[in-house]
Design goal:
Largest sheet: 11 strands, mixed
CATH superfamily of the largest domain: NAD(P)-binding Rossmann-like Domain
Strand content: 25-35%
CATH topology of the largest domain: Rossmann fold
CATH class of the largest domain: Alpha Beta
Number of strands: 17
Helix content: 25-40%
Radius of gyration: 24 Å
CATH architecture of the largest domain: 3-Layer(aba) Sandwich
């Protein structure tokens, strides 16, 4: 049978990993796909051209013009592995318009423009596969879209950014500051020179947006995701959380509620006995709660050449198997049939419900705790646990830490404003959300 011919847009980390896997496991992949999958052409940058020639040893037609890959009659599937929004968006839409299937690892592109891309692919009768866009080598897209299709998904919570997880692990294990941990991550190649997307939760929000769309049958709504990063976390908050039996992770959380969908990324206290609380370093993990299966945990490498390339190749195999199937019989891009998508409300962060860690610096004088607890009680916020440190020698202020029961965020906002207005409180109140994530 005629091989499926792939055109790679990018032969860097992910593109190189994809090519290496296809070459090394060619026979095994062909046995599974039913026909050979062959990289026919690749577009690379001028500066990478010589290295690409060495890597492919003359077996792949190389070009510095990605348009040649998209327009080539010798390419059946375009694999967009270049990243960024432009020109990736234009190239993907052009490939679709020419009737070519597309594989992409570009989470930002899908989170911001996925609705347009999937609509164009549906109208043209081609597939867009994107397993590699979320959690690298963990097959979470296929799990949500196919493996858990019998379930009504209740919530998803994931460590889906390895850079942030590495930094938090270093802060906890060695007690270093955020800035020290970030510098180390950059020196090891885990963080970019400009780490904003990773440490401020933007990268995780891109991935969460995609998972929420598949889990709940809603359009991509990245602009409605609440995003809060880890750059303001301190080693002392990580230490206090441990004293209460919790660990702090940057989590992406999406939950179906009676009032709408929660879609949020932020530092989160998790009970240390939970498996996900013990996912350290650059590794990723995703918890999914389904009504039938309960809670499942999916763990693995969230980035890297071959882990991500593994997901790209899996998508290439899926498309090869289904390329000749009637479009109406293929798995829908976002799990639900296009005419069955719902535009459910995504709740503003003020409307979410969770528990909270509150840390305040208070002057060591009578009546301070009574004032704070009165404010919380008046707003219907109950305290689950509290810790007060003795003042250091010569120090007038002490740390007071409280864990609350579940409440609505707007009430916590009101409480914090009132507490910060007290003469006995020095400086801002630190607030970190808390999720039990039981039972796994």
């Amino acid at each position: 049978m005629k091989p499926i011919r792939v055109g790679l847009l990018g032969l860097g980390v992910v593109g190189g990993g994809t090519y290496a896997i296809l070459e090394r496991n060619r026979e095994e992949i062909s046995r599974r796909a039913g026909r050979e999958i062959h990289v026919a052409m690749a577009a690379v940058r001028d500066v990478d051209l010589e290295r690409a020639r060495e890597k492919t040893a003359g077996r792949v037609a190389l070009t510095t013009d990605p348009q040649q890959v998209v327009n080539s009659p010798d390419v059946d599937i375009v694999a967009e592995l270049m990243g960024g929004i432009h020109p990736a968006k234009e190239l993907v839409l052009q490939a679709i318009a020419r009737g070519k299937h597309v594989v992409t690892a570009n989470k930002a592109l899908l989170a911001l423009h996925g609705n347009e891309i999937f609509k164009a692919a549906h109208e043209r009768g081609v597939m867009v596969a994107f397993e590699a866009a979320v959690a690298g080598g963990i097959p979470i897209i296929k799990t949500l879209r196919e493996g858990l299709t019998a379930n009504r998904i209740e919530w998803i919570a994931g460590i889906i950014n390895g850079t942030s997880n590495y930094i938090l692990t270093s802060m906890r294990d060695r007690g270093v500051s955020f800035s020290e941990a970030l510098k180390e991550a950059q020196s090891l190649g885990y963080a970019e020179a400009d780490p904003t997307f990773d440490i401020e939760g933007i990268d995780a929000a891109h991935k969460l947006t995609i998972m929420a769309a598949i889990a709940f049958g809603i359009p991509m709504q990245f602009e409605r995701a609440y995003t809060e990063g880890i750059s303001t976390l301190t080693a002392e908050d990580i230490r206090y959380a441990e004293e209460f039996g919790y660990r702090i992770k940057l989590l992406g959380i999406t939950r179906r509620t009676a009032r709408g969908i929660e879609l949020r990324v932020h530092p989160t206290l998790i009970p240390e006995r939970r498996l996900i609380a013990n996912v350290d370093g650059v590794m990723n993990a995703v918890l999914v709660k389904g009504d039938a299966v309960g809670t499942t945990l999916h763990y693995g490498a969230g980035a890297g050449a071959e882990p991500t390339g593994s997901s790209v190749v899996a998508d290439l195999v899926d498309i090869t198997r289904m390329a000749t199937a009637d479009p109406g019989n293929r798995v829908p891009h976002l799990a639900f049939q296009p005419d069955q998508m719902h535009d459910d409300v995504v709740l503003p962060v003020a409307e979410i419900e969770t528990s909270y860690y509150l840390r305040m610096r208070a002057f060591d004088r009578p009546g301070v705790l009574a004032d704070v607890t009165r404010i919380l009680a008046d707003l219907g916020i109950s305290i689950e646990a509290m810790l007060q440190r003795e003042p250091a020698a010569g120090e007038e202020r002490v740390d007071v830490i409280m864990l609350t029961h579940q409440t609505v965020e707007r009430q916590i906002d009101q409480a914090i404003a009132k507490i910060e207005a007290l003469d006995s409180i020095s400086g801002p109140v630190t607030r970190i959300r808390l999720e039990p994530l039981g039972p796994v």
